[in-house]
Specification:
single chain; alpha/beta; Spore Coat Polysaccharide Biosynthesis Protein SpsA, Chain A; 7-stranded mixed β-sheet
Length: about 210
Amino acid sequence: MGNVRAWRGHVLERGLTQRSGDYASPVPAIVIPYRGDAKRRLPSSVRAAVAVAMLGDVVEAALQVGGVFVVTDDAAVVPVGAEVVPDPGGGLGAAVVAGLARVEGHALVVNADLPAATPSALRRLAGAGLALVEAADGTTNALSLPDPSVFAPAYGPRSADRFRAHAPFATVSIPELEWDVDSDADLERLAARVGPRTRALLAVPA
């Protein structure tokens, strides 16, 4: 509860006023944790290429919203314009903590497997204040953190429930950030909605 009280005090101190459920004009930084070997349900023949393409689409959208920090152990795949943060190891939560350590002020944490992400979707998330986007399986695809110190590593199965138990996260429905890719079936289902890098890899007409 101490972190929650600190976050509320931080909001008042910085003059971030709530307006119709949104916070006034946040200009966030975006933290994107990335591991190329995480998509084990994708065919091995395309797994690495799909992961890199999806990362590129997420970064391209994020760069139009704020500064971008990609936490990874493979700096070679990070698109120009994003800052590389070395992955400390220890899993997704530790990677996010490392990225947030570079951020002052409002941060978004966005998974790298959201190739349909758009600048508009990211701005909607930022405008929701302390909020999360829940995946269909109950995991967490994205977080909005007006005060990054509120973050606690809670990833894993049903992580959205744990984040909500930790702090008063609002759950926002943003389809472009709900559509994650874990399998071939996901790629097929989202083929017409993904960004240009993933679309080119799949040879889907624009």
